[in-house]
C-alpha cells in the first residue's frame, strides 16, 4: 500500500461530520497553481501567476447532500466548523427530498498518482516562455492585413487530496499545459481570424512543457496570417445541402456538444434541467437507439494518456475507466456518478465526477470523449466528395436544451469539387439535428490523423463551473449537411 | 461573515503594501460568502455554502508590470505573490502603452454604493430551503427545477498611488423551471434585497407558462414580428455588451462602434446605459482599478454614443476612464451594469399590437456569429407561443434564431414598462420587454 500523505485537519473534518450525524463524508483539498501569459504583437497582455488553496466537505445526512468549503486550510477548529456547516446544509436539504441519496459501492482506494511529464513547465524561465510567445505574436501582427496577432500560454497544476469515511486516501497531481496563437485581419467592418492549433487559447493537454514544444507553433505563423488575410476577400460560404468534411478540431466540438453532454446521466435524469437542460436520450434508450451510422464509435476514456480528462480517480474517489458510449452507431453507455449509476442498473460508477476547484460540488463531467478512428485519410474523405465543403477550426457553437438542434461556425471552409479542394470561403456555418447528423456520417479518418484535443472551457452547473475535458477525433465526413444558417 | 473576511484581508494587504520594493503596487481584495441551493425533480439536489477571498496583486517596475493572485491571506503568501509579481515584471518586456495605476486626484475617489441587504447576507441553508419548499408547493404536482442563491460580497482596493476604496453588496437570485412533461415554463427574480426576490411568484409564473406550453405545435422558421419578454432582452443586452460596448473591441476593430460610432444603431426610443447607480443594479461602484464607475450612455436615443473605457483604452483614445476595468488587459473594459430604458406599454399591450407573430419567454445557449455585425444565434425555450390577432395563441416548438442584436433594436416598435434586473453571474442587466418588427428564426427543434 503506498504511503499517502494527508494533512491531519482533513481527518478532523471527516470525524466532525460523522459525529454530527453524517452517514457518508468525503473531504477534498485542492491546491492549484497556474500561470497565464498572453502577448499581442510586441506587447504583453497578461503575465499572471495564481494560486488557490482550499477544501470542501461533502456529506450525506438523512439521505440528502450538504457541502461546505473554506480556503482556511490546516486548522482543526475551522475544519470542525466547516464540517458542521456541511451537516447543517444537508439537514436543510433533507426538508425537500423525495429520493434519498444512495451511493453504489466503490473500494476505498489508497493511492498517489501524477500526470506523467517530461519537463516541468514551471521550471522553464518566464523569459523563455515570453520569448516563445513574442516570436509568434510579433510576426503575426506585422503580417499584411493583420490587425491583431496574439499568442497565449496556460499552465495549470492541481494537487488534490481526497479522503472519505469509506477508507479512500488519494493524492493526485494533475498538470495541464497549452499554448496557441491567433491572427485577426480586419477591413471595412469585417473581422476574420485564424488560429493554431485551435481556437480559444490554442490547445491544452495533460503533460509538461513538452506538450507545447511538440506543437511546432512557429512553423505555422506564416500560414495562419496568410489565411486570415485571405478570408477578408474570400466570398461568403454559400448555403444549401452539401457533403461536409470537418477537420478534427471541429469534430471535437461536434462530439462535445452533441454526444458528450447528452450522455451525462445527471442531464438525462433531469438534474441539470433548469440551466444547461436535459437530453434527447433516456436510460431505456441504451442498446435501443441508433445515435449514428455504423462509422460512429465513441468512448468516454479517462485512462488514455495525455487528455485533459485523464486522471486516475474522480472527485468522489472512483477509479476512472474507459467505457463505450456509442458502439457501431448504437447508444450503449452513459457517464455516471455514484449517486446516478444505480439508474443504469450498474453496480459501480464509471468515474466521471469532477469539481472546478475546492469550492464547488462535483458534477458529472466528461473525461475524454473520443470518436474512435476509422480508416483512410482526410485526403480520402475529400476524394469521395463531388460537391461539398471542408470546414476547419471551430469558431462558434450553440445547441438546444435537449441537445438536438445545433449550429456550429468554423474559421474557414474550402470548396470541394470533384474530390479536390478549391477556393476558400469565409463565415462557414452548418446546422442540423443530432441524430440525423451522426447518421449521415459515412467516414472517419484513420489513426494517423487522430488527435487528442483539449476543450479548456466546458461550462456546467450552478454556480457555473468550468472544466477542462478531452476529445480524441480525426476528420469525418457527413453527407447532405445543411450548410449556412438555415431558412 | 463577509465583513469579517474583508477586515482580515485589509489588515494583511496593508502590511504587504508598505515598503513594497516596486515603483507601484495595487492590491485588490474580492471576498464573498455564498449559499446556493439547487433543486431538480422537485427536490433539493445540491446545496453548498462557501467563503472565498481572492487577492489580486499588480506591480509596476518602471514601464513593466505583472500580476499575481492568491486566496491565502497570511502575510507570507501575500508577500510571495508580491515578490513573484515583481520578479515577473522585471523580466517582462516594457509596455509603452501602460497608463499607470489610478491616481485618485485624477480619476476621482469612489463612494461606496452599499447596495447591501443584511437579510441576504444572513440567509442560512434553512432560509433557502424554506423558500424552495414554498416554490415546490406553489407548482403543485408539476416537476420543478431551479435554484436560490444568496451572496454577500465585498471589494477593497488599495494602491501606492493613493487608491483606498471599499464597497459591499449582496445578490439574491431565484430561478424556476416547471416541466409538465409536455411543456416547460420559466420564472426568475433577482435583487440585492431578499424581500424583493419572490420565489413563489416566479414559480407560479413558470407553472402557468408550462401549462400553456403543453403539446406545442410547429411553426415554420422565417422572419416574424416578435415580443421578447424581459429575460430574452436581458440576454441580448448581455451579449451586446460583451461583443461591442467595451473600448478595446472598438480600438481593435471588432466592435460595432468601430464603424458606427456617432451613427444611428437603434430607433430613437432606445437608450442603453451602463449605470451602477441605478437602484436595480447589483454590484459595487468602482472598477478593478479603483476608478469610480461613471454612468455611460452607450446607446443614446438610438445613436452609438460612447463605449466604456478603462485607464489603458482611455489613454489610447485620449480621454478619461469611465471606470469599467475588468482587471484584464486581454479582455479590456466591460459594461456590467447595463440598464435599458423602459417604455410605457404593458406586456399585454405589446402583444396586442402584433397581428401575427411569436412571443419568446427566454433564450438558451446564445453565441456570437459576427462581432461587428452583433450577429447572434441561440434557441428559444420554456415558453414560445404564436401570437394571433393580438393575443397569445398556441404554444410552438422552439426556434433557433440568427439575428443581429442591433438589427433587433432598430426594429423596435414598442418598449415595455416592465424593466427589471437580471443577474445570473457578474453584474446585472436591466431590461424591459420589447415588441420587434422583424426577427429571424432560422430553424426549429422538436420540442
Sequence-ordered SSE layout with sheet pairings:
The complex is a heterodimer of chains A (487) and B (447).
Chain A: H1 8-19, E1 24-40, E2 43-61, E3 64-70, H2 76-93, E4 110-114, H3 126-141, E5 146-164, E6 169-187, E7 190-196, E8 203-206, H4 209-213, H5 221-233, E9 240-246, H6 248-260, H7 265-268, E10 298-301, E11 322-327, E12 330-331, E13 353-354, E14 363-364, E15 369-371, H8 378-383, E16 387-399, E17 405-417, E18 420-425, E19 429-433, H9 434-439, E20 441-444, E21 451-460, E22 465-473, E23 476-483
Helix pairs in contact in A: 1-2, 3-5
Chain B: H1 2-17, E1 24-40, E2 43-61, E3 64-70, H2 75-91, H3 104-107, H4 118-122, H5 125-138, E4 143-159, E5 164-179, E6 184-191, H6 199-212, E7 222-228, H7 230-245, H8 247-251, H9 256-260, E8 272-274, E9 296-300, E10 303-304, H10 311-317, E11 337-340, H11 347-352, E12 356-370, E13 375-388, E14 391-395, E15 399-404, H12 405-410, E16 412-415, E17 420-422, E18 428-431, E19 434-444
Parallel strand pairs in B: 7-12, 11-18
Antiparallel strand pairs in B: 1-2, 1-4, 2-3, 4-5, 5-6, 7-19, 8-9, 8-11, 9-10, 12-13, 13-14, 13-15, 15-19, 16-19, 17-18
Percent range for helical residues of chain A?
10-25%
> What overall form of chain A do the CA principal axes indicate?
globular
Beta-strand percentage range of chain B: 35-45%
Domain count of chain B, please report it: 2
Average of per-residue pLDDT values of chain A: 96
Q: Largest sheet of chain A, if any?
A: 8 strands, mixed
Provide the gyration radius of chain B in Å.
Answer: 23 Å
Amino acid at each position: 500500500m503506498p504511503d499517502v500523505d494527508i494533512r491531519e485537519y482533513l481527518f478532523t473534518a471527516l470525524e466532525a461530520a460523522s459525529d454530527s450525524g453524517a452517514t457518508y463524508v468525503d473531504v477534498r483539498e485542492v491546491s492549484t497553481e497556474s500561470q497565464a501569459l498572453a502577448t499581442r504583437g510586441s506587447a504583453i497582455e497578461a503575465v499572471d501567476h495564481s494560486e488557490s488553496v482550499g477544501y470542501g466537505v461533502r456529506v450525506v445526512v438523512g439521505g440528502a447532500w450538504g457541502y461546505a468549503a473554506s480556503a482556511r486550510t490546516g486548522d482543526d477548529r475551522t475544519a470542525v466548523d466547516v464540517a458542521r456547516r456541511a451537516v447543517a446544509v444537508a439537514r436543510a436539504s433533507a426538508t425537500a427530498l423525495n429520493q434519498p441519496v444512495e451511493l453504489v459501492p466503490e473500494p476505498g482506494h489508497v493511492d498517489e498518482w501524477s500526470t506523467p511529464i517530461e519537463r516541468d513547465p514551471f521550471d522553464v524561465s518566464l523569459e523563455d516562455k515570453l520569448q516563445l510567445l513574442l516570436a509568434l505574436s510579433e510576426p503575426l501582427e506585422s503580417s499584411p492585413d493583420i490587425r491583431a496577432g496574439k499568442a497565449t500560454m496556460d499552465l495549470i497544476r492541481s494537487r488534490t487530496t481526497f479522503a472519505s469515511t469509506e477508507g479512500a486516501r488519494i493524492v493526485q497531481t494533475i498538470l495541464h499545459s497549452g499554448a496557441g496563437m491567433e491572427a485577426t485581419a480586419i477591413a471595412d467592418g469585417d473581422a476574420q481570424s485564424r488560429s493554431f492549433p485551435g481556437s480559444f487559447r490554442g490547445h491544452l493537454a495533460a503533460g509538461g512543457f513538452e506538450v507545447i514544444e511538440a506543437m511546432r507553433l512557429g512553423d505555422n505563423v506564416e500560414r495562419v496570417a496568410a489565411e486570415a488575410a485571405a478570408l477578408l476577400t474570400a466570398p461568403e460560404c454559400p448555403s444549401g445541402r452539401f457533403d461536409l468534411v470537418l477537420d478534427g478540431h471541429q469534430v471535437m466540438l461536434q462530439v462535445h456538444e452533441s454526444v458528450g453532454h447528452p450522455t451525462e446521466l445527471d442531464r438525462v435524469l433531469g438534474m441539470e434541467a433548469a440551466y444547461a437542460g436535459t437530453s434527447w436520450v433516456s436510460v431505456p434508450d441504451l442498446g435501443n437507439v441508433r445515435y449514428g451510422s455504423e462509422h460512429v464509435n465513441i468512448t468516454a476514456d479517462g485512462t488514455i494518456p495525455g487528455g485533459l480528462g485523464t486522471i486516475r480517480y474522480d472527485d468522489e474517489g472512483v477509479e476512472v475507466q474507459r467505457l463505450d458510449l456509442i458502439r457501431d452507431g448504437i447508444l450503449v453507455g452513459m457517464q455516471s456518478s455514484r449517486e446516478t449509476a444505480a439508474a443504469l442498473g450498474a453496480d459501480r460508477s464509471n468515474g466521471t465526477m469532477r469539481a472546478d476547484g475546492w469550492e464547488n460540488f462535483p458534477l458529472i463531467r466528461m473525461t475524454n470523449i473520443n470518436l474512435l478512428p476509422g480508416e483512410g485519410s482526410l485526403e480520402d474523405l475529400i476524394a469521395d466528395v463531388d460537391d461539398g465543403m471542408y470546414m476547419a477550426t471551430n469558431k462558434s457553437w450553440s445547441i438546444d436544451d435537449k441537445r438536438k438542434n445545433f449550429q456550429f461556425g468554423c474559421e474557414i471552409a474550402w470548396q470541394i469539387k470533384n474530390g479536390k479542394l478549391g477556393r476558400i470561403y469565409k463565415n462557414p456555418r452548418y446546422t442540423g439535428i443530432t441524430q440525423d447528423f451522426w447518421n449521415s456520417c459515412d467516414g472517419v479518418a484513420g489513426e494517423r490523423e487522430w488527435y487528442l484535443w483539449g476543450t479548456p472551457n466546458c461550462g456546467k452547473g450552478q454556480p457555473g463551473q468550468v472544466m477542462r475535458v478531452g476529445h480524441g477525433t480525426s476528420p469525418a465526413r457527413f453527407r447532405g449537411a445543411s450548410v449556412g444558417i438555415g431558412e | 461573515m463577509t465583513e469579517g473576511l474583508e477586515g482580515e484581508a485589509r489588515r494583511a494587504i496593508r502590511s504587504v503594501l508598505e515598503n513594497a520594493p516596486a515603483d507601484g503596487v495595487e492590491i485588490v481584495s474580492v471576498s464573498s460568502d455564498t449559499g446556493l441551493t439547487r433543486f431538480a425533480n422537485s427536490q433539493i439536489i445540491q446545496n453548498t455554502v462557501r467563503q472565498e477571498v481572492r487577492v489580486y496583486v499588480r506591480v509596476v517596475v518602471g514601464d513593466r508590470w505583472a500580476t499575481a493572485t492568491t486566496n491565502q491571506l497570511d502575510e507570507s503568501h501575500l508577500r510571495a505573490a508580491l515578490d513573484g509579481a515583481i520578479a515577473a515584471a522585471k523580466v517582462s518586456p516594457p509596455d509603452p502603452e501602460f497608463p499607470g495605476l489610478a491616481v485618485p486626484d485624477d480619476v476621482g475617489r469612489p463612494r461606496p454604493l452599499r447596495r447591501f441587504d443584511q437579510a441576504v447576507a444572513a440567509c442560512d441553508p434553512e432560509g433557502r430551503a424554506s423558500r424552495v419548499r414554498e416554490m415546490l408547493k406553489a407548482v403543485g404536482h408539476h416537476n420543478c427545477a431551479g435554484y436560490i442563491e444568496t451572496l454577500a460580497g465585498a471589494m477593497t482596493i488599495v494602491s501606492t498611488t493613493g487608491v483606498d476604496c471599499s464597497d459591499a453588496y449582496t445578490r439574491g437570485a431565484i430561478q424556476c423551471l416547471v416541466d409538465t412533461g409536455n411543456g416547460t415554463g420559466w420564472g426568475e427574480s433577482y435583487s440585492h434585497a431578499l424581500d424583493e426576490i419572490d420565489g413563489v411568484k416566479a414559480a407560479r409564473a413558470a407553472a402557468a407558462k408550462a401549462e400553456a406550453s403543453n403539446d406545442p405545435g410547429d411553426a415554420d422558421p422565417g422572419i416574424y414580428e416578435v415580443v421578447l419578454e424581459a429575460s430574452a432582452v436581458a440576454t441580448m443586452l448581455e451579449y451586446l455588451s460583451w461583443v461591442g460596448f467595451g473600448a478595446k473591441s472598438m480600438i481593435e476593430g471588432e466592435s460595432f462602434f468601430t464603424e458606427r460610432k456617432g451613427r444611428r444603431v437603434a430607433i430613437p426610443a432606445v437608450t442603453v446605459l451602463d449605470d451602477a447607480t441605478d437602484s436595480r443594479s447589483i454590484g459595487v461602484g468602482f472598477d478593478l482599478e479603483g476608478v469610480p464607475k461613471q454612468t455611460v450612455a452607450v446607446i443614446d436615443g438610438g445613436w452609438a454614443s460612447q463605449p466604456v473605457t478603462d485607464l489603458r483604452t482611455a489613454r489610447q483614445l485620449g480621454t478619461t476612464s469611465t471606470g469599467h476595468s475588468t482587471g484584464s488587459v486581454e479582455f479590456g473594459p466591460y459594461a456590467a451594469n447595463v440598464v435599458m430604458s423602459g417604455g410605457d406599454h404593458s406586456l399585454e399591450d405589446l402583444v396586442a399590437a402584433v397581428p401575427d407573430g411569436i412571443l419568446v419567454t427566454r433564450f438558451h445557449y446564445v453565441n456570437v456569429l459576427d462581432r461587428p455585425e452583433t450577429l447572434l444565434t441561440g434557441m428559444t425555450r420554456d415558453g414560445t407561443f404564436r401570437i394571433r390577432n393580438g393575443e397569445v395563441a398556441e404554444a410552438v416548438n422552439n426556434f433557433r434564431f440568427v439575428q443581429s442584436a442591433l438589427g433587433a433594436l432598430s426594429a423596435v416598435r414598442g418598449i415595455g414598462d416592465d424593466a427589471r434586473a437580471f443577474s445570473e453571474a457578474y453584474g446585472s442587466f436591466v431590461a424591459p420587454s420589447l415588441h420587434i418588427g422583424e426577427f429571424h428564426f432560422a430553424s426549429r427543434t422538436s420540442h
